[in-house]
Fold this protein.
Amino acid sequence: DAQALLHELDESNLFLIPLDNRGEWFRYHHLFGEMLQYRLEQQKPDLVPVLFHLAMCWHIEQDSIEEAINYAISGGHFAEASELVSDTAMYLQNYGNRNLLIKWIEQLPAEFVVKHRLWVQYAVAQFYYTRFIMARRFIEEMTSDEILDAIEDGTEREICFSYRDVLLATIELH
């Protein structure tokens, strides 16, 4: 009986951390979880991204977007991760979790950062912390003429050039 096993492990303080007071939700102790993940990666590496995707989907259904983004990034599901980060960025900017936003954007490949204009969110978050040099470097890296010229939609390309010019001019004022 799975419920009895969970109860026994919980009572023995073995491997599980309860996530609620009713004993319905648990997570593995982080060291045990890391060991299981390592074994899975060694024995069934093709299954890892599938499981991360399933975990991401489950967390989206539970409205646990932060966890969903972490699973998407960990599983290499960057298209989904960048969309979730983009949808969440303004909330994080407005309610003060800019470091988490910065961390997520730094973990995404450049093509997704550019596609979703996350470089703008990154620069704004860095501005808040007065990290102007970091903001400038990232803007220049993500918006080189070569990268922006590759954007097929002419209107989108011009918007990106405009954002870049305004952000870099703002940095110059500081």
